[in-house]
């Protein structure tokens, strides 16, 4: 797919490692996700107290997005749309919530857990932190779908819905997680093609 | 009453995941919402669940929460007068 857009930055978080444009910026490969996320938050100077109230999917998404958006938002360029997808939806939190209401004799549903039983909540957290009043959509696919990401991001830019698109595959279920995020705009970088998106995802 | 206040501070920090706040940071009369601990509406619902789960208090009217959850002091007073467990 030929176009005039480019991937300017990308980030991957998986297996206890944070990579920014291919460079490792934080690692705790032996740690369980909650501890890894807490230490990554501190190391990356994320500075958002409500981070600790989030569920795993939102923490994962928030950390990756914060790495990519910090410099652009500081720049005042906040017309950034969010385009996210995954395969597990919010199932990791859905299961926890279901467990909390399974026993009728000990029935105390947690509002703080319930609010995360939708996958797109993570985009709300990111939008609040970075003051984004922009387009956002969350899709569910069986597997990573670079063709869809490429076409949808291009449509958002072609129709001037946004100056930049933050694309993200953010999946979390039990101990298995991966965030792959990248920014697409007219600024120079890697050509915005499904092949390049797939290559960056695989790294 | 002092033991209950201490217990409430510990529970609130734990239940509401106030990672950056220590028990010593919370004064008995500090506002829990707004400029104090900065709690939000979901936290308020979580506190209502905590009253039910840990102290056997069911708030029939959620509007009561505004007065009860003003501070640790007001929470402790209400709980000590109304707890069933």
TrEMBL record, chain B:
Name of this protein: Phosphopantetheine-binding protein
Main location: membrane
Residue ranges occupied by any Carrier domain in the UniProt entry: 1-83
One Pfam entry name: PP-binding
InterPro entries, A to Z: ACP-like_sf, Cadherin_CS, PP-bd_ACP, Ppantetheine_attach_site
Keywords noted in UniProt: Membrane, Phosphopantetheine, Phosphoprotein
Gene3D superfamilies xref list: ACP-like (1.10.1200.10)
Chain segments annotated as coiled-coil in the UniProt record: none
NCBIfam families hit by this protein: PRK09184.1
Compartments in which it is found: Membrane
PROSITE patterns: CADHERIN_1, CARRIER, PHOSPHOPANTETHEINE
